[in-house]
């Protein structure tokens, strides 16, 4: 299948948050030393898993919903150019303006220019993975525009000069005591006697944001879904801050990845059942806000939709890898992943952490720029079982590992193994020689460099005392005596004789 959205190019370097400064093993090694981080992650992911499991168990047709979600997403990617053109036409008919951004640089320039046209020096933001991906906050600040995150977790991350570590709960790596300290240090007008009681912390954030909601004329949002049939955009959230941002300002700018489009409202029904149960463990989203263009006298009077590629066309061009674009950002795969639970999101170096990040980020940037992420997994398959749209993440991880350029020593070793296994006599000799590997110990720690580098993260299999070839040869040289059962008697024949 050809790709018609343009030449498949990856996200540009030097902008946005898709590439880390260190490889995953280097960053994970430091994270594993942080006991408080691991306690925070274990508590949060365990709680979310429990809630999600209960509400999913209520639906007898959960697997059918997963099948439907997967089929709809596959259909979207098969007709993505047509759906995007249809979406553009409907948004324009409804009074909105559509902008096409090939990459992060174009998207940031478009949004910054639109805000400048309003004369505002401040914007309020709805939680958005796409704007984090392109580094929009940094671009706005460089232009003298102050972005204010209104999602509580995103606000914690912003005030703490931190980075998100989870798709759903960006501040999952912080406990309430750490949050109180951030508020005391960075939140204007906060009560010095602030406690770490969650309702008290939420009330402090509410007071801080209330004036901002009422006095800021420009909002920037992402979008969970877009309906091509009507030009409708939608955001789902749990706190009500999104509803404030999407209704109060005069100008609304939405940045949306091109894969978020759906054909019809009927398709949306499936995802409004899958998403809340998989993400927050709720039967439905507390706040689901939908808007179509501009309605005179009601809500924003200027609406701009920025359709973002930033490597998505490159992902679409890979028939095997494109299923990563099915992701609805529910974070279910993070909450069941044993690797994520122990290392946290910052180790992945990308705004998309966990199993989905390990397959999406390398494709958006080019595998060479995130070569360690496909290996950030035990391939246990828990992510595939949890994914509400049935993304086969383990298979994608193996697919991407095959695209990583392996070290020369490893390539030579694999070539030698292939040569040996293709020659029976040589393979038999290698098996006999392999018995000497017992001197390396059960875990293979006795192997010399460079083999010791391979066993640093793997246990060397214990070789059997007798191979199948040895057993077969011994059996052939000492055959067991054949047993001859007594012939069955035939009474009827005896009577005849």
From TrEMBL:
Entry annotated with the keyword 4Fe-4S: yes
Q: Which residues form the Lactate utilization protein B C-terminal domain?
A: 403-476
Q: Which UniProt keywords apply?
A: 4Fe-4S, Electron transport, Iron, Iron-sulfur, Metal-binding, Repeat, Transport
Q: Where is the LUD domain?
A: 84-294
Q: Which SUPFAM superfamilies match?
A: 4Fe-4S ferredoxins (SSF54862), NagB/RpiA/CoA transferase-like (SSF100950)
Q: Where is this region: Disordered?
A: 471-497
4Fe-4S ferredoxin-type domain location is 324-391
PANTHER family in the cross-refs: LACTATE UTILIZATION PROTEIN B
The name this protein goes by in its record: Lactate utilization protein B
Q: Which organism is it from?
A: Actinoplanes sandaracinus
């Amino acid at each position: 299948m050809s790709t018609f959205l343009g030449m498949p190019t990856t996200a540009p370097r030097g902008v946005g948050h898709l590439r880390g400064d260190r490889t995953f093993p280097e960053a994970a090694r430091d994270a594993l030393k942080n006991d408080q981080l691991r306690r925070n992650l274990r508590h949060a992911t365990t709680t979310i898993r429990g809630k999600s499991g209960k509400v999913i168990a209520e639906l007898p047709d959960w697997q059918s919903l997963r099948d439907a979600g997967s089929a709809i997403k596959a259909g979207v990617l098969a007709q993505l150019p047509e759906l995007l053109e249809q979406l553009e036409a409907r948004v324009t008919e409804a009074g909105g303006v559509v902008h096409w951004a090939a990459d992060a640089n174009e998207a940031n320039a478009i949004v910054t220019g639109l805000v400048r046209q309003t004369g505002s020096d401040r914007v309020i933001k709805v939680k958005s993975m796409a704007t984090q991906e392109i580094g929009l906050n940094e671009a706005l600040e460089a232009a003298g525009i102050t972005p204010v995150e209104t999602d509580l977790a995103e606000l914690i991350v912003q005030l703490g000069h931190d980075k998100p570590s989870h798709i759903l709960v960006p501040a999952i790596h912080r406990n309430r005591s750490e949050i109180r300290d951030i508020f005391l240090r960075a939140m204007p007008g906060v009560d010095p006697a602030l406690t770490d009681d969650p309702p008290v912390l939420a009330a402090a954030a509410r007071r801080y944001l209330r004036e901002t909601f009422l006095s800021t004329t420009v909002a920037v949002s992402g979008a969970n879904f877009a309906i091509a049939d009507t030009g409708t955009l939608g955001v789902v959230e749990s706190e009500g801050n999104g509803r404030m941002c999407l209704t109060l300002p005069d100008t609304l700018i939405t940045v949306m990845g091109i894969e978020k489009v759906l054909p019809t409202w009927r398709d949306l029904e499936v995802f409004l059942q899958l998403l809340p149960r998989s993400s927050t463990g709720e039967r439905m989203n507390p706040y689901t806000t939908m808007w179509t263009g501009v309605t005179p006298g009601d809500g924003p009077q200027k609406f701009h939709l920025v359709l973002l590629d930033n490597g998505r066309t490159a992902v679409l061009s890979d028939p095997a890898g494109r299923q990563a674009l099915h992701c609805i950002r529910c974070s279910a795969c993070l909450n069941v992943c044993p690797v994520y639970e122990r290392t946290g999101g910052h180790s992945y170096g990308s705004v998309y952490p966990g199993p989905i990040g390990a397959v999406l980020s390398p494709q958006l940037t080019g595998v060479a720029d995130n070569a360690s992420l496909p290996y950030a997994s035990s391939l246990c398959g828990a992510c595939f079982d949890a994914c509400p749209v049935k993304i086969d993440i383990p298979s994608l991880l193996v697919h991407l590992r095959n695209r990583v350029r392996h070290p020369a020593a490893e390539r030579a070793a694999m070539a030698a193994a292939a040569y040996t296994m293709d020659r029976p006599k040589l393979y038999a000799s290698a098996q006999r020689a392999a018995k000497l590997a017992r001197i390396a110990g059960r875990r293979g720690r006795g192997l010399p460099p460079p083999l010791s580098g391979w066993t640093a993260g793997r246990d060397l299999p214990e070789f059997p005392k007798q191979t199948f070839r040895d057993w077969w040869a011994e059996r052939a040289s000492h055959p067991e005596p054949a047993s001859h059962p007594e012939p069955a008697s035939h009474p009827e024949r005896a009577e005849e004789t």
